[in-house]
Design goal:
This protein has 414 residues and is of the alpha+beta class. Helices cover 49% and strands 11% of the residues.
């Protein structure tokens, strides 16, 4: 077991590492994991504040994870709860005071909050100790709530959280809140960029891009694990890929409304203009100052390429849009990139973007049934899509459905 000084030293290093994580979802996973490690907690959840609600964002549970086959992840349902004093998380968000409860099944009935047994009854898990604490900004605003469950001794016996744990989590919360506040600002900037694209193309909504990005990260992680890549490299790549995938169609800000919003089929000339959104998007990240810029440019440029080489924009000069000298077709157009000529990120987002587009309602169509969508993807394997990635995609369907449920489209105005 680490001493308190060793934990504080480790926390200083962790603070630097957390501030290098850019994406909000990836960061929440990391914050929850690290919080549990510091106090040897078996499980935990993180909630993000949204006005007067708490959004249940992520949960982790080592005991339940061990019951799953290797490589599978816990599937959890997202929900929102009011910020009031009826639940433990709501109480902490409403008051700003942490709660350290040795046994959640023995909360005094005179207290305003109670423990919901619903999860334990459904999963067969037994919650005992719970420590719930706020994530506050420097000016006292509550960003969210961390709840860690079932402290363990060296033999994995459930024990209460100690006073030392409380002190350590107070330090941890201040470090995590700084990173979360910065990641929320980054997410807000990305969503504003997407809002600009949505003004031009109503399909480019926040839920759509979050789903496409979530699917992409899941597929990449399984692809990387098959190759036994280093977990730190996987984490870094997940971070930049998720943000890059969100901006896959941001180049549409440079496309005319007459084309983007045309209710009829595009002419050949109009479609050629539409194709240029891949080039416009890549150029937005031409001044490459980070791994994110590189990833975003690759996704924007390549997510309409096809495995068999019939996609677009193909082998072009990014500055001019002109086909490269030795990569032109007889008609003068650029030859499409084929197979692994297409960067991995482009191949992944090509698949996740089509899946979500077919699965979603649009002004010009209803959402397809899942079976119809999956049949189409299977049929296009080896022509449109990388066969290995399709195999991974089908193996990930439980998580894909969970991501769909997490980022649902806003209900239409009646």
């Amino acid at each position: 077991m680490l001493s308190e000084k060793e934990k504080l030293d480790a926390l200083m290093v962790l603070g630097v590492e957390l501030n290098q994580v850019q994406d909000l979802d990836i960061l929440m996973e990391r914050v929850l994991f690290e919080a549990r490690q510091f106090v040897n907690a078996d499980a935990g959840s993180i909630y993000i504040r949204r006005q007067d609600q708490l959004d249940f964002s992520y949960t982790q549970n080592d005991t339940l994870q061990k019951r799953l086959p290797p490589g599978e992840k816990l599937i959890f349902t997202t929900f929102s709860m009011p910020i009031d004093q009826k639940s433990m998380a709501g109480y902490v968000a409403a008051t700003g005071h942490p709660l350290n409860i040795p046994d959640v099944y023995r909360i005094a009935p005179t207290l305003p909050y109670s423990f919901s047994k619903q999860f334990d009854q459904a999963s067969g898990y037994k919650t005992r100790s719970a420590f719930t604490f706020p994530l506050k900004t420097a000016n006292g605003n509550i960003l969210g709530i961390l709840q860690i469950i079932n402290a363990q001794d060296e033999n994995r016996n459930k024990i209460p959280f100690s006073e030392q744990d409380e002190k350590m989590m107070a330090h941890f919360a201040s470090v995590a809140a700084v990173a979360l506040e910065r990641a929320q600002m980054t997410r807000a900037i990305l969503l504003r960029m997407i809002k600009m694209a949505e003004l031009r193309d109503p399909k480019e909504t926040g839920p759509h891009v979050n789903r496409v990005a979530g699917y992409a990260v899941e597929i990449y992680e399984r692809w990387a694990q098959k190759r036994s890549l280093d977990h730190k490299e996987i984490d870094r790549t997940r971070d930049v890929l998720r943000m890059a995938a969100m901006l896959h169609d941001v180049g549409k800000v440079g496309t005319s409304d007459l084309i983007l919003k045309k209710p009829a089929r595009l002419t050949k000339e109009e479609f050629e203009i539409m194709k240029q959104h891949t080039l416009f998007g890549a150029r937005l990240f031409g001044d490459r100052q980070s791994d994110f810029d590189v990833a975003a440019a690759k996704v924007a440029l390549n997510h309409h390429e096809k495995w068999d080489g019939t996609g677009y924009p193909g082998h072009i000069d990014l500055r001019t849009g002109i086909p490269l000298d030795d990569k032109a077709r007889p008609d003068g157009s650029a030859r499409g990139k084929k197979g692994e000529e297409i960067p991995l990120f482009g191949r992944i987002v090509a698949l996740t973007d089509v899946f979500d587009a077919l699965s979603s309602k649009r002004c010009y169509k209803e959402a397809w049934d899942e079976s119809e969508v999956l049949s189409t993807i299977e049929k296009d394997t080896g022509s449109h899509f990388d066969p290995e990635l399709v195999e991974i995609f089908f193996a990930s369907m439980n998580m894909i459905r969970a991501i769909q449920a997490r980022y649902q489209d806003e209900p239409e105005d009646q």
